[in-house]
Design goal:
Blueprint: H1 5-16, E1 20-24, E2 40-43, H2 48-58, E3 70-75, H3 76-81, H4 89-93, E4 96-101, H5 108-111, E5 120-122, H6 126-143, E6 146-151, H7 172-178, E7 184-186, E8 195-200, H8 205-213, E9 216-221, E10 223-225, H9 229-235, E11 242-248, H10 257-269, E12 277-283, H11 289-301, E13 309-311, H12 321-330, H13 341-350, E14 355-356, H14 371-398, H15 406-422, H16 429-437, H17 442-448, E15 459-464, H18 475-482, E16 487-492, H19 509-516, E17 520-525, H20 530-542, E18 547-552, H21 562-574, E19 581-584, H22 590-593, E20 594-596, H23 603-611, H24 614-621, H25 623-630, H26 633-645, H27 647-653, E21 660-666, H28 671-685, E22 689-694, E23 708-714, H29 723-734, E24 744-751, H30 767-778, E25 782-783, E26 788-791, H31 799-812, H32 829-835, H33 843-848, H34 857-865, E27 868-872, H35 877-882, E28 889-894, E29 901-902, H36 904-916, E30 922-924, E31 930-935, H37 937-948, E32 966-967, H38 974-990, H39 997-1003, H40 1014-1018, E33 1030-1032, E34 1036-1038, E35 1055-1058, E36 1072-1079, E37 1082-1090, E38 1109-1115, H41 1119-1133, H42 1144-1151, ...
Parallel strand pairs: 1-2, 1-3, 3-4, 4-6, 5-6, 8-9, 8-11, 11-12, 12-13, 14-15, 15-16, 16-18, 17-18, 21-22, 21-23, 23-24, 24-25, 24-26, 32-35, 35-36, 44-45, 45-46
Antiparallel strand pairs: 5-10, 7-9, 17-19, 19-20, 27-28, 28-31, 29-42, 30-31, 30-41, 33-34, 36-37, 37-38, 39-40, 40-43, 42-43, 46-47, 47-48
The structure holds flavin mononucleotide (FMN) and iron/sulfur cluster.
Amino acid sequence: MSTSPIEAVAAVIKAASNPVYVTQPAKSAASKWAELLEFTPLIDSNEPLALVAGYIDANDVSEDDVRPTTVVVTDGTTLLQNLPFLSLSAYKKTPVVINVDLSAGDYGVVTAFSDAQIPIFVSQNAADAFVHTQAAFAAAASEKSAVLNFFSSASASEKITTDISSQPQGTFSDILVQYNINAFLALNKVSNAKDAIVFLGQTSPELVKAATAQKALLYTVNVFQPLDLEALLSIIPSSVETLTLVEQTTKIASFSPLLLEFFKKYPQFQHLKNFTKIVGAKYAHASDASSATSNLLANTRSASPLQNVLFGKADGTASSEAQTAQSEKQAGQLKVYELEQAYLKVLNQVNPNSTVLNDISEKTLGGSSNPEFGFGSYLYFKERQNNLAALVSAYIQKGVFSSLDNEKLVELLSQWLVQLKQGKAFASVEELLNILSSDQSEPAKEILSLKDYFTIQSKWLVGSDAWSYDLGSSGVHNVISSGENVNMLVIDSEPYSSKKAGALRKKDIGLYAMNYGNCYVASVAIYSSYTQVLQAFIEAEKFNGPSIVLAYLPYETEDAQVLSILKDTKAAVDSGYWPLYRFDSAQEEDSLRFKLDSSALRTQLRDFLDRENKLTLLAKKNPQLSRNLTASANSEAKKRQAQLEDESYKQLLQGLSGPPLTIGFASDGGNAEAVAKKINRQALARGLKSIVLSMDDISVEDLPLETNIVFVTSTAGQGEFPNNGKGFWDELKLSQDLDLSSIRFSVFGLGDSKYWPRKEDKHYYNKPAVDLFNKLEFYGGVELAGLGLGDDQDPDGFSTGYDDWLPKIWTALGVDNVEGIEEPKPLTNEDMKIQSDYLRGTIAEGLRDESTGAICAVDQQLTKFHGIYMQDDRDIRDERKAQGLEPAYSFMVRLRLPGGAANPSQYLRLDELADVRGNGTLKITTRATFQLHGVVKHNMKPAIRGMNGVLLDTLAACGDVNRNVMVSALPENAKVHKQIADTGALISEHLLPETTAYHEIWLEGADDQDYAGDREKWEARPDGPKKKKTMVAGNALVDYEPQYGPTYLPRKFKVVITVPPYNDVDVYAHDIGLIAIVENNNVIGYNLLAGGGMGSTHNNVKTYPRTGSMLGFVPIEKVHIACENVMLVQRDFGDRTNRKHARLKYTVDDLGVDVFKQKVEEYWGESFEEPRAFEIKSNVDYFGWVKDETGLNHFTAFIENGRIEDTASLPQKSGLRELAKYLISQNTSGEFRLTGNQHMVISNISDDHLAAVKEILAKYKLDNTEFSALRLSSSSCVALPTCGLAMAESERYLPELITKLEQSLEEYGLRHDSVVMRMTGCPNGCARPWLAEVALVGKAPGAYNLLLGGGHHGHRLNKIYRYSIKEHEILSILKPLFKRWSLERNEGEPFGDFCIRIGEIKETTEGKYFHEGIPEDA
Ligand SMILES: Cc1cc2nc3c(=O)[nH]c(=O)nc-3n(C[C@H](O)[C@H](O)[C@H](O)COP(=O)(O)O)c2cc1C
Ligand code: SF4
């Protein structure tokens, strides 16, 4: 009678009469073992191996007693699910034979246990199974551990004798000898065979025949662990040249654990056999073994065989993937292998029902498949699922169902609730829904409407190591801090070989997560331990909370060779760079929380463990580890070096990639960083192993380990290193005994030879680059290429020097003849606008992202159009960086306030919002509106809603659109002021963008930060700025921008209105300046100036400030249309390719004023009239009280630099609050009007309230106008600490500087003589410094360019008088000049005019001549 494999195994088990556990799908399921054995059944899904371990532990025996061998019978899938339990001590210390039926034919399960460190037998047939099971019992007893015994019940029955031999004693190899088991068995004979196949799976006579026909030797595996490679290599004849390692499986692609196992040991035995090719392959059940085998061998024999291809298809098509792939490859069409799939396939193997939330099927990881969005969709799903759970539990309690089987329904619903709570899968969804569908009640219908949310699945997010660079603002932080039951797979693909220099270059996600606690963390590497990857996935799935699996998969390109990945993984794991571990925060016992699966550790992880006291525990638990634990990563690296010296191994691995190159950059403004990244892209394209990182992330200590290193540094301050290079430079400078003789280096510097133009400052030019180059040379570094210097002053800026230097680097690295890559075009502001869907971008999503205080770069550009700028507190940037925190991000929120007036209720709301949503201060801007500073992300929506509640908004307060329209404050003329304010409001509304994005993003929906009752307040103006969508064909409502189009304007656009003789708005400084022409106290129209603008760039003579050019007179009723047409010409003719040349002023100069005017008239269809006569006399404010023609009173209060705040001596913010409250309580007409000089007019006060108002002003020191005329005429921009462009202090410094000048002015009798003095932190010119009589424009901390000669009433530009001078120089220049002015001026001659008349400075007649005639000794 023939015996089946099951019978053979059962016979052995029965003879042993030990406790036997058999797993089965359900209690009631019939087991094929029932007739053969007595056993305890265990349920597959109940973690049977954990239960068995529990039984073993409970059945404790004394040390001396002999343990009975426990027997488990299970199937491959269940065993795989239970993989983590094999590390329990029961399986390490007691004999257990685990018999596994692989009837499903997937031998992938066998290799999953490669690293479990227990013996593994694999049987081909009943005879094998009979012998192997006996051997397994013997081995379990001798090893005192678990043994895995794989067989397949699908194999045919055969005639065997089932006499049990007596159990032999001895070591594992003794047992094999006694049972006559060969680890590998030759299945055929072929003389002079050139190819050998090792087959892990179920062989068949057809397969043997096919191999023989192909003249290939076929070997089967009897003992998979320990893998006796020596035995295999010694039986393969010397004629064999190629080896194909085949695994029978259908599941995993692009990764072969068998091949991995082979390579782990091969270098040790390579002297026995040197194959020309070693190929891993997969084999499915093939109906046509002959064709599958021939394809398999054809692949191995081809010039460049593909690894891990699946041969033979179960459906019998027997088409070979390899054949197809090979031909595609030959046709140059082979799609690059997606290596990361290795992990995803394993994940799928562990749990075929797991869901990857971010769809990565199309793109490679780290591309546009955004994990943050995946997380968002999870949260959405979860919220709906929670709603469903709440409904279900409420209806269960109410007992409202009327289905066919209510009892069953309630039971299933309750089970579902329990499973949901535990995060476990629920198998009976279909049954539940069937019963529910029979219920016609409303509750049942309601539940059914949410039926999609009954599925309980494990959810995975897949991301790349890009997340490690800014953890605080990444999805990683998002997921961990959420506490949600979400799993993350983070694949790090950067090869270790290209990152030896920097231990600190990336932040360690694992450490970050472990420090956070409350999660599961595993660090795995599939090419180091496949078993550990499986364990990690299974544990992560089980963990009820966030899990992070960090997976290492180093490769240079996507079609990287398996060997290169293997080599790199090995080096990284061996050196401790990529330790393998698992951390389970849910484990109560400390020693179980952290499991180290590799031996060496990086310093950082060691420190973490030290801190957590886990290192000692680990060392105690595992004594042989302690030596490794204390060995430093450096010595491990050296060991690795020695290992690589192994010549033959090297030979095998050679030719996999080009030489390494590290690129370090230091950059403040981004130029040097961009250059470094560009070099890196080019290097990678040329086949170099290149990496780019900031200089502060390079460890000086590890510098000698580099091979080739290139530094790119710009120059900051006065010849200083930029911030992210300072640390490195300080360490390098102070290093002693640094030997760099083994590295090749070069340096490229970015600087500006005119930044410090004085002769004595010449050495500041590119100083960091020069110093660094000399230092590296001093330490013995070998030049890769000479020092390269880029100069902003060269025709192409720094590119001139760069283009000369870079080719030398490629030549030195031997890759000069390789084609580089086409650089992708950087995303321009124009791209951002057009892709933004009418200014939406991902602002709404960014606001919801609580893991960072920032929003993404593109949204930072887009929020400007909504009146919002992201900033960070630069005062504490370094400190926060040192603490590993992201910068202190907050936002500036600017109001659109056409006409510059706020009623007391509006003012009061702003005052309140500044306190509760901002930094407690309000800023009056140089364009007569309010700004809130320090508004953190989660406060932005409530802040904007708060404004909306009092009919204020921020739309178009910044951005490439028409911004706030500013009008002259004009306190003494009520009628004219009303007329210009109305014109201002009309223009502002007329040119307002039409997008509904503002309303959608800021005003719709509930927000966590809204206070109770807030909603009613802000909904008082539900539309926000009154914009609506447009109906297009097909009845779709879409956004439409009739004036702007989807790309809006090339740059910002500003309109102001003034009334001569006043010019408090600086009418010449804006894109459009309107000069009101008043006849009989009535505005009849405006003279229109176009093309004024302030922004420029230091030392870039192509940029300059400009005063507006007169186009002519426009009647009042047409002025908004004239403005629109000026704007439209700029929209169409403005330079959209260069933002530094995009303002209207350049368009006017490029076209010429006449042509420009002509174009506007063409667009408009009307002509400008001749300009009317007017006379402007000043651009300052007049402080104190005035009465207008209607009898209302107005007080211009001095608010220094527009900052409304309470200081000990000046409680101005409290005062204005009191005043607003008073004006509201008395129901007065009073309001708050802002001036372009950043002051405030308390306006429209009737005589009966005058005394009370005066009293409040006096009480809060708001009535003090007794300042020097210089102070009263001064203004500054915000600059540090919030403005990202600031190069020097401004608002915080100008008052101090003025104090230092005041004493002298007093002395010269100039206290009451107005001099317009302005300061800005950079040449962007927000406080319009270029029109001031004295201007200071920041260049570097403490250093300013001094400009003189501006027109007293803002009609003439000034000119640079001295470059980059410090305070003592400023004082020593200005004081004597003021003195001369006091003595030598003509009657009424302003200081600016005086400076020109006496020849101190040349007059600037037009913007384009701004850079001409600068003093030679400037
Ligand atoms: C505040 C500041 C100070 C500078 N100081 C110098 C200097 O001392 N020497 C020099 O050669 N270039 C100097 N520059 C010019 C820059 O190094 C040059 O513009 C470079 O391209 C900026 O690169 P980055 O964007 O990477 O910071 C300075 C630039 C700025 C903004
Ligand atoms: S002038 Fe420059 S430093 Fe000052 S606020 Fe404007 S951009 Fe910032």
